[in-house]
Amino acid sequence: xxxxxxxxxxxxxxxxxxxxxxxxxxxxxxxxxxxxxxxxxxxxxxxxxxxxxxxxxxxxxxxxxxxxxxxxxxxxxxxxxxxxxxxxxxxxxxxxxxxxxxxxxxxxxxxxxxxxxxxxxxxxxxxxx
Length: 129
Hints:
Layout: E1 2-10, H1 14-22, E2 34-40, E3 43-48, E4 53-62, E5 67-74, E6 81-91, E7 94-104, H2 109-128
């Protein structure tokens, strides 16, 4: 299993960042390659720019830990396993977002890591604005 770990420092109070991250139905407002997102209960569907979609299960939204856990259950990336979390912590009056992604097969990281890096840049811009 491969783990992708990214940390983003955001010049915004952590409570405000958490409010946006916790609103899991609005992920398309934070990540540029997600053209549109919809959510029905714990199932989120993300339509991707250029075609294709991700089907995800939102495992938990924990306000005490300020952590969203989710799993991609269907994607064009042919992953056998995917589990991820986004956690927002206070960083001296600003926010730090910690994004952890575990996936199989290891080769899927070749495609997933650049997507995560792109999403991190998008989120930093969207959340700081």
